[in-house]
Amino acid sequence: TPAPSGSVRLAVIGGDGIGPEVTAEALKVLEVAAPDGVGFEQTAYDLGAERYLATGEVLPDSVLAEIREHDAILLGAVGGKPNDPNLPPGILERGLLLRLRFELDHYVNLRPSRIFPGVTSPLADPGDVDFVVVREGTEGPYTGNGGALRVGTPAEIATEVSVNTAYGVQRVVRDAFARAARRPRKKLTLVHKTNVLVHAGSLWWRTVQAVATEFPDVTVDYIHVDAAMIFLATDPARFDVVVTDNLFGDILTDLAAAITGGIGLAASGNVNPDRTSPSMFEPVHGSAPDIAGQQKADPTAAILSTSLLLDHLGYADAAAAVEDAVVADLADREPGSTRRTSEVGDAIAARVAG
Amino acid sequence: TPAPSGSVRLAVIGGDGIGPEVTAEALKVLEVAAPDGVGFEQTAYDLGAERYLATGEVLPDSVLAEIREHDAILLGAVGGKPNDPNLPPGILERGLLLRLRFELDHYVNLRPSRIFPGVTSPLADPGDVDFVVVREGTEGPYTGNGGALRVGTPAEIATEVSVNTAYGVQRVVRDAFARAARRPRKKLTLVHKTNVLVHAGSLWWRTVQAVATEFPDVTVDYIHVDAAMIFLATDPARFDVVVTDNLFGDILTDLAAAITGGIGLAASGNVNPDRTSPSMFEPVHGSAPDIAGQQKADPTAAILSTSLLLDHLGYADAAAAVEDAVVADLADREPGSTRRTSEVGDAIAARVAG
Ligand SMILES: CC(C)[C@H](C(=O)O)[C@@H](O)C(=O)O
Ligand SMILES: CC(C)[C@H](C(=O)O)[C@@H](O)C(=O)O
């Protein structure tokens, strides 16, 4: 797919809490990193907890329709104060974040994990960690299938249904193999729980085996999700590309972020590889309302998300330049440094400008 | 409930691989630890991969009926060689382990995690870790509900259904609160994913809130399962009693075992607190066929499981004696020591006797 040239239409959802602050720095870096002749035509969308509390709206259909007309989406973070009685639990997660992922068919939720030089891991001896999780984004236990009966009575029953289709599993597995084939180690690990979740597990495992024949250079590995936790704690360097379902991917990637220096550094892309709709890039962290508006937030994860965005748009060199600038900045950070959010953005932008 | 006195009927399932070896050491310690006048009347049951490969039987109904007539079950480990073509994946897990847990209504899957003195954690600075996970054992995504359609075609769909009932959630939550109330810190953390799995999540959260009124001394905390991973990697000392569903508990407890020194030390109890059927105690580790029969396996987890067994039977002093002996043995272990399985058992048994 040729990269859009000239003008890239970018929908920007700063969101709540520290979201707008880190997004401002991400945009700063993006402007500097853009290849010659490429400009980002930004439209800001006011969505999130504040918008909901003010108007009762989460994601109006008309706004979704507008967002669809963009080349990409940059998202900061959404979420209000913990336990705000006016904010029903999960309403933004499902009504905004997950709705965007599902409506825009972001079937590849891409989450790289790497221990950058200078970054401290909580693990005493993590080794050389550099892997990427390809988390399925449109199926599994996240579909909102399931329900409840006799709610509030002693006879209540609540179900959650994990939905897995050949269509959905194949496309994400094929994407993961293609990524593995492009990496030096060329290794793909399926993480699932095939010994208990036999129907879904069997579909995932058969699909991996079938798609493997298209990628003879890629080594295939399988680990149960519980054992994967042990490896992440004791030998995370063993992973290269991990493919897994929506819920396992959620759990795995937070642990992966923790052992590689924290969710302050974890970037993600909600990608539609077929480009039938705009992909969305966001830091894995939340809106951290306790430190909002104080220029205390670390914008690194948001900035790294723009590297994924640039790469997705086909600007591989610009993507690498952003990542390199972040790597250099991290290596130079003083322990206990208290640079302001904008100072970190300025420093990284200056390195990209070079 | 008064402890059975005189003779305790113990069903022993050594299983496969290192299972029989570690079980022998657990029994050695159990004999020594038994209070005066209490004897363990053992019946060995030959179940597991070998039995299945030889006879095609996993858990005959008649054997299950016999096992039911015991006061407790001690299990080593089951599982054959990886990828044995004659062993359908998951057949022992579901047909034996999970079948026992479900048939015997082991609704409390008890998994303590503690960093014992002298034990090395993969975390650089784990802090003072001592918590217990109360994992639900008879519901959730482990029920085998769900199914598949058009298997093997491009239109395949596979579902897994997590089943959660007020009956099932309440009893395990109440058990977890009672355990929290007996511990010094008196803190209970619910781990779930209420913002996405809204039906099940709501039932769990409402149940925790309702049962909390019966335990006013216990502090209640809630963490999403993904965030719980981060805390386990960065601040595991924050946990006291964790209550969670079957699948989240599976994932959490393997990570908990990893950060507290490995599954070589992790004990577990599949407990029926109502004592309507025998509870089952087993190390969390598997059958490790690669080192079977070589006296290389560490029997510590199996031995610690007998401490849980003794405690469940009401022999609190004997349970403490076993745990203390293990703690003392661990503190004295030489780094890189290669004691044989039986030597470890002998040493711990001697300390209990001592
Ligand atoms: C906020 C929540 C719905 C979301 C998820 O579970 O996917 C988040 O945890 C993430 O990983 O992006
Ligand atoms: C073997 C498997 C079925 C089992 C589980 O998932 O419960 C194991 O992982 C455990 O944690 O005891």
TrEMBL record, chains A, B:
<keyword id="KW-0520">NAD</keyword>
<feature type="binding site">
    <location>
        <position position="254"/>
    </location>
    <ligand>
        <name>Mg(2+)</name>
    </ligand>
</feature>
<comment type="similarity">
    <text>Belongs to the isocitrate and isopropylmalate dehydrogenases family. LeuB type 2 subfamily.</text>
</comment>
<keyword id="KW-0963">Cytoplasm</keyword>
<feature type="domain" description="Isopropylmalate dehydrogenase-like">
    <location>
        <begin position="9"/>
        <end position="348"/>
    </location>
</feature>
<protein>
    <recommendedName>
        <fullName>3-isopropylmalate dehydrogenase</fullName>
        <ecNumber>1.1.1.85</ecNumber>
    </recommendedName>
</protein>
<feature type="binding site">
    <location>
        <position position="135"/>
    </location>
    <ligand>
        <name>substrate</name>
    </ligand>
</feature>
<dbReference type="GO" id="GO:0003862">
    <property type="term" value="F:3-isopropylmalate dehydrogenase activity"/>
</dbReference>
<feature type="site" description="Important for catalysis">
    <location>
        <position position="142"/>
    </location>
</feature>
<dbReference type="Pfam" id="PF00180">
    <property type="entry name" value="Iso_dh"/>
</dbReference>
<dbReference type="InterPro" id="IPR019818">
    <property type="entry name" value="IsoCit/isopropylmalate_DH_CS"/>
</dbReference>
<keyword id="KW-0560">Oxidoreductase</keyword>
<comment type="subunit">
    <text>Homodimer.</text>
</comment>
<feature type="site" description="Important for catalysis">
    <location>
        <position position="193"/>
    </location>
</feature>
<dbReference type="GO" id="GO:0009098">
    <property type="term" value="P:L-leucine biosynthetic process"/>
</dbReference>
<keyword id="KW-0100">Branched-chain amino acid biosynthesis</keyword>
<keyword id="KW-0479">Metal-binding</keyword>
<feature type="binding site">
    <location>
        <position position="101"/>
    </location>
    <ligand>
        <name>substrate</name>
    </ligand>
</feature>
<dbReference type="InterPro" id="IPR050501">
    <property type="entry name" value="ICDH/IPMDH"/>
</dbReference>
<feature type="binding site">
    <location>
        <position position="111"/>
    </location>
    <ligand>
        <name>substrate</name>
    </ligand>
</feature>
<dbReference type="GO" id="GO:0000287">
    <property type="term" value="F:magnesium ion binding"/>
</dbReference>
<keyword id="KW-0432">Leucine biosynthesis</keyword>
<feature type="binding site">
    <location>
        <position position="226"/>
    </location>
    <ligand>
        <name>substrate</name>
    </ligand>
</feature>
<keyword id="KW-0464">Manganese</keyword>
<feature type="binding site">
    <location>
        <position position="226"/>
    </location>
    <ligand>
        <name>Mg(2+)</name>
    </ligand>
</feature>
<feature type="binding site">
    <location>
        <begin position="286"/>
        <end position="298"/>
    </location>
    <ligand>
        <name>NAD(+)</name>
    </ligand>
</feature>
<comment type="pathway">
    <text>Amino-acid biosynthesis; L-leucine biosynthesis; L-leucine from 3-methyl-2-oxobutanoate: step 3/4.</text>
</comment>
<dbReference type="InterPro" id="IPR023698">
    <property type="entry name" value="LeuB_actb"/>
</dbReference>
<dbReference type="GO" id="GO:0051287">
    <property type="term" value="F:NAD binding"/>
</dbReference>
<keyword id="KW-0028">Amino-acid biosynthesis</keyword>
<dbReference type="InterPro" id="IPR024084">
    <property type="entry name" value="IsoPropMal-DH-like_dom"/>
</dbReference>
<feature type="binding site">
    <location>
        <position position="250"/>
    </location>
    <ligand>
        <name>Mg(2+)</name>
    </ligand>
</feature>
<comment type="function">
    <text>Catalyzes the oxidation of 3-carboxy-2-hydroxy-4-methylpentanoate (3-isopropylmalate) to 3-carboxy-4-methyl-2-oxopentanoate. The product decarboxylates to 4-methyl-2 oxopentanoate.</text>
</comment>
<keyword id="KW-0460">Magnesium</keyword>
<dbReference type="GO" id="GO:0005737">
    <property type="term" value="C:cytoplasm"/>
</dbReference>
